[in-house]
Amino acid sequence: MLPTKFRRQLRREADLWAQEGLIDRTIHDRIAQRYQFSDLDIESRNSLITLLMGLGCVLIGIGVLTFVSANWQQLAREWRVGILLGAFVIVNILGFYLWREPVGGKQRFGQALLLLGALMLGGNMALMGQMFHVRGELFQPEFGCI
């Protein structure tokens, strides 16, 4: 599929060509059908909806992170582990389920969730290490040998 910007320019030019008489109406209609001029308005509306949904998800995510981080120390260790692992499992299962869908929008959202799951893995490992005070030297000699 060609970029939307090119198709918009082509639609303006084709309308101008038809008005000037350079092409007749049947050629204009064939160009419009080939480059799907009728779908341009729907695509721009969908991109605005996608942008607003993304902004809403970011704001909700920030709110959840703020709420959890404000109450993180008061939660029992078992609850913290449950929240971390539960969120990780749910995001990855939902991402995999949506990734397998043949419809484009769901598949892209599934890919985004799988990416989020991969990022959550690193965060979960860091937070688990912090909660259980796991420390380690970069090099630990065995059997007292240096």
Automatic annotation (TrEMBL):
Q: Where is each DUF2157 domain found?
A: 16-140
Which Pfam family is an annotated match for this chain, by its short name? DUF2157
Enumerate the UniProt keywords alphabetically.
Answer: Membrane, Transmembrane, Transmembrane helix
What are the TM regions of this chain, as residue ranges?
48-69, 81-100, 112-132
Classification via InterPro entries: DUF2157
User: What is the protein named?
Assistant: DUF2157 domain-containing protein
Q: Could you read off the lineage of the organism from its UniProt record?
A: Bacteria, Bacillati, Cyanobacteriota, Cyanophyceae, Gomontiellales
